[in-house]
Amino acid sequence: MNLDTDQPAVPTVGVLETAALLRELTAGLIAVTDFDDALTALVRITRDAVAGVSFSGFTVLRAGQPAGAAASDPTLSGLDDLRYGPDSPAMDAIRRREMVLSQNLGRELRWPDWTPRAVDLGVYGVISAPLDVDDQVLGAINLYAGESDVLTTGHQLTAMLLAEHAGLLLAAVRDRARQLEVADERDSSLLDGGVVGQAIGVIMTQRGCPAEEALEVLRSAAASLDIPLREVAQRLVRTVSRARDN
Asked: Helices 229-245 and 194-207, interaxial angle, to 10°?
């Protein structure tokens, strides 16, 4: 990514501030399993943590799905949403695979449809940094300034590091979501029948609890006894069958 080093002498983002931002992002996204929730957390943390940045947004492209967006401030959501048109700094960054900078949107000639909307909303500077999440998802993180000529080389470095780190965190979010989906499918198959399904029915009857809670009881027992779930279920079903026979 190219950095514009011809910068005005204004306060910039330091190494410690950038490190703190990356730590906060990790803490905020480490347990998230919903991708859209992760994007919302990402843009809000970025807005609050980066000095000189008034707003933050994210433009996302997902294979086989409509383009999406997240905004730190709802009034600015249209700046990141491609439904309002593909002519934007974010799309330039995604297409060119490099960071895009505009120090002063009041003098900007690129993006003739997007720029007037941005200025009307109080945005006068922008950095868009592309990122890859996985082979199905890519996007751009967008940093917006409420004043002209305040985005420095430090902000560009922060955007570059932010994009790299966010790509890894968002990939992990998608992995967790896929794992949950597989687990849900496995749970559904367990609940549908077989010896595990029978054992779940026994626990539901005994405890008056729903199937999901009964499955967790079986799993807890399997973990405590250090034996497979199916064996716990078989033992329970045999015990109940003997009691009935007697």
From this structure: 60
